[in-house]
């Protein structure tokens, strides 16, 4: 865990598999829950993590305890969410879905390959164009 300036304040090296102490959120989710257990209760936090840790159930659990969470998410963890297949779309195409029961928004956009983001506190807007370098057109 680091501060916004990048200073390391908490570190837990991987030491082999451990028990999933939080049931339905898998080992990756257990790591995130263990990290945030050291945060003060009286402040609002927004955590960002890698797709290794992300699941819909983790983001739902974070929302229930008042912590925002945003991360990329792997396709096999979407729990059947009907996001479009953008592999044949042009760069910039996107699709999204929102689950009001878990307060999780999923956004998939086409970059050089499809990227899927999950968040319990951010949505699809604002949509903007970004300047990108393209090797094909220079």
Could you give a short description of this structure?
By secondary structure, the chain is an alpha+beta fold. The chain is built from 2 helices and 5 strands.
Could you characterize the architecture of this molecule?
14% of the residues lie in helices and 22% in strands. Strand 1, helix 2 (56-64) and strand 2 form a beta-alpha-beta unit. The longest helix has 11 residues, at 26-36. It has a 5-stranded mixed β-sheet with strand order 1-2-5-4-3. It contains 2 helices and 5 strands; from the N terminus they run H-E-H-E-E-E-E. The chain is α+β, with helices and mostly antiparallel strands and 138 residues long. The chain has helices at residues 26-36, 56-64; strands at 45-49, 67-72, 94-99, 104-110, 114-119. It has a domain at 40-119.
Task: Bin the helical content.
Answer: 10-25%
Q: Which structural class is indicated by helix and strand composition?
A: alpha+beta
Cα-atom radius of gyration: 17 Å
Spatial strand arrangement across the major sheet: 1-2-5-4-3
Compressed to H and E, one letter per element, the order equals HEHEEEE
Q: Count the helices. How many?
A: 2
Categorize the overall geometry: globular
Largest sheet: 5 strands, mixed
Strands, total number: 5
Low-pLDDT stretches: none
Q: Average pLDDT value?
A: 83
The CA-CA distance between the termini, in Å, is: 39 Å
Strand content: 15-25%
